[in-house]
Design brief:
With 575 residues, the chain is of the alpha+beta class. It is built from 16 helices and 17 strands. Helix 1 (7-15) crosses helix 12 (363-375) and helix 8 packs across helix 9.
Length: 575
């Protein structure tokens, strides 16, 4: 029997349009080993380990008449070389060139006639580094699940493990008649399953009543929040097909220092940093920021329990970030208080209940409902902020040391930027996926994140601050990371465009697909959207022991404020 997509997983297929591709991804930086790292080595790694993630050899098959959600079937023509690709940066191989290439690749939709993933080896980065860029359709995994699947090419030691070789024989694809028969059978079975669920939930009457009460409170709290539309700001704008990508990093230990000094959770600190960054960024644009200004963030959380396999298990909070508050520590306290209130009302549980209810609707209604819901997205929230906890120890791919991982979160309809972050080996890595035209200053927003961190650190008494690593550079990190970031802005203007082998080969043959071209700017996008889910409800990003921070993580860049650099324009006036 074919594995059927859940209602939530299928919704990401229904929502996808040319301006809102629904794939998640990551930009993972590595230090090349002494014997080098090439495309052949990456393909070998995937071939040896893809059996650990069988979904990566499966494609989506629609049920005739769409009377049920699609199913996953083995791709009898699976070709790993099609999915694992190679690109290169021209000299000098700056991070700015990498970000440009990432935006270009992530703008392309995935081929639905094949397994819904791609992986790119990006060579030519300065400092002996290379990058691996992943693209996986949101229908396959949520943020937490994506990290689990990504482990297949990673090891905890420089010496790669060699899994036992296994021969793969694809399962024959079901016929249309079989797909329809199975769908009808599931519909006939569903009433009995619902009755069983009611009986099991009624075993403990008191707990059942309490659970329903919490869900009702959560739905009511969410409804009250939605009834208050978010403030209008440049984060909400018509978006096109093209993308920009920004990235920055900071020490996890700095976030822990702030948490110990002021309370709350690591996730509260992250949201306060985002609030401070958005405040400064709005001011650089000359936007009016009053004491009552706020930005509403959709903060997805993973509600995955144990090892439930792949798929999406997501709930979410709607959090009003106090960008109008000028004091960093007050912003943090306000965020902490609001998160406590949201958790106590059970708003996350209410979101889970809504996802479960959606499972009873036919997929055609799911598609219509999902599109209608996303027409409201601009009126419900301004941007998405996700975080995913990662391992706090070094990892390797084919002997290459992993330096950091920057998430790529898809854009929702009418939303110009999404912010994703993940922790790894003592660092926190931010990826900013943005519309190319609406967010020409995405790098400014990335810089504002480091400014907001510095502002919060200044509120910590000196005796409570964690000592910085020694001045000696870790040999695993490229030299002059902060200086390189400043210098590459000047180099980017004169540097050649990144070389994408797939697109270049198509150009040479005269058969280049339209999706390989620089995506065209469109007017107002049609109905589509979706958001990535992903930080854990238990704030798993700070599960590592306090104080255990390796020196290998690049320190945040201490930069002057945008105002002192003359980037702030006069605020707009009404009338």
């Amino acid at each position: 029997m074919a594995d059927r997509l859940s209602p939530l997983d299928a919704s990401f297929l229904y929502l996808e349009e040319h301006t809102t591709p629904m794939h998640v991804g990551g930009v993972v930086l590595f230090q090349a080993p002494e014997d080098g790292f090439d495309h052949e080595r990456l393909v070998t790694l995937i071939e040896e380990r893809i059996a650990l993630v069988p979904r990566y050899r499966q494609k989506v098959r629609q049920v005739p008449g769409r009377i049920a959600n699609p199913v996953w079937v083995d791709d009898e023509d699976f070709d790993v070389a099609y999915h694992v690709r190679r690109s290169a940066l021209p000299r000098p191989g700056t991070d700015a060139q990498l970000r440009e290439l990432v935006g270009r690749i992530m703008a392309r939709p995935l081929d639905r006639n094949r397994p819904l993933w791609e992986m790119y080896l990006v060579e030519g980065l300065s400092g002996g580094r290379f990058a691996i860029l992943t693209k996986t359709h949101h229908a396959m995994v949520d943020g937490a699940g994506a990290i689990d699947i990504g482990q297949v090419i990673l090891d905890v030691t420089p010496e790669p493990q060699r899994p036992a070789a296994t021969a793969w024989v694809p399962e024959p694809a079901p016929s249309d008649v079989e797909l329809v028969a199975e769908a009808v059978s599931e519909v006939l079975r569903s009433p009995g399953a619902a009755i069983d669920a009611v009986r099991s939930s009624a075993v403990d009457v008191r707990e059942t009543v309490n659970r329903l009460g919490r869900r009702a409170a959560g739905v009511a709290a969410a409804a009250m929040t939605i009834a208050r539309p978010p403030s209008a700001n440049p984060l909400n704008a018509p978006i096109g097909e093209a993308r920009r990508f920004g990235m920055t990093s900071m020490r996890l230990d700095d976030l822990k220092t702030i948490r110990r000094a002021h309370g709350g959770t690591i996730n509260d600190v992250v949201l306060a940093i985002v609030a401070g960054a958005l405040r400064e960024w709005l001011m650089t644009r000359g936007e009016s920021v009053s004491s009552r200004s706020s930005v509403r963030a959709l903060v997805p959380v993973s509600v995955r329990v144990g090892e439930e396999g792949s798929g999406n298990h997501i709930a979410a909070f709607l959090v009003d970030l106090p960008v109008g508050e000028p004091q960093a520590v007050v912003r943090l306290h306000r965020v902490t208080y609001e998160m406590e209130q949201l958790k106590s009302t059970g708003q996350m549980v209410g979101a889970q209940a809504l996802v479960g209810i959606a499972g009873f609707a036919p997929p055609t209604l799911h598609a219509a409902a999902a599109r209608t819901a996303n027409d409201w997205s601009r009126r419900m929230f301004n941007l998405v902020v996700t975080n995913v906890p990662g391992p706090q120890f070094p990892l390797y791919a084919g002997g290459a040391l992993m330096l950091g991982a920057y998430p790529v979160v898809p854009l929702a309809k009418g939303q110009a930027v999404s912010i994703g972050l993940t922790s790894y080996h003592g660092g926190v890595y931010f990826g900013l996926n943005a519309d190319r035209d609406a967010m020409t200053d995405v790098d400014v927003l990335a810089e504002c994140l480091t400014n907001a961190l510095a502002e919060l650190l200044e509120t910590v008494p000196p005796q409570q601050r964690t000592p910085r690593p020694s001045a000696a550079r870790d040999p695993r990190q490229p030299a002059g990371a902060a200086r390189r970031r400043r210098a590459e802005k000047a180099a980017a203007a004169s540097a050649p465009a990144p070389v994408d082998d797939e697109a270049a080969a198509a150009d040479a043959s005269g058969t280049r697909d339209a999706t390989d071209a620089e995506p065209r700017r469109t007017g107002t996008p049609r109905h589509a959207a979706g958001v990535d889910g992903a930080h854990r409800a238990d704030d798993g990003i700070h599960r590592a022991e306090d104080g255990v921070v390796p020196p290998s993580v690049v320190r945040p860049r201490q930069v002057s404020s945008a105002a002192s650099r003359g980037l702030v324009r006069p605020p707009r006036t009404s009338g």
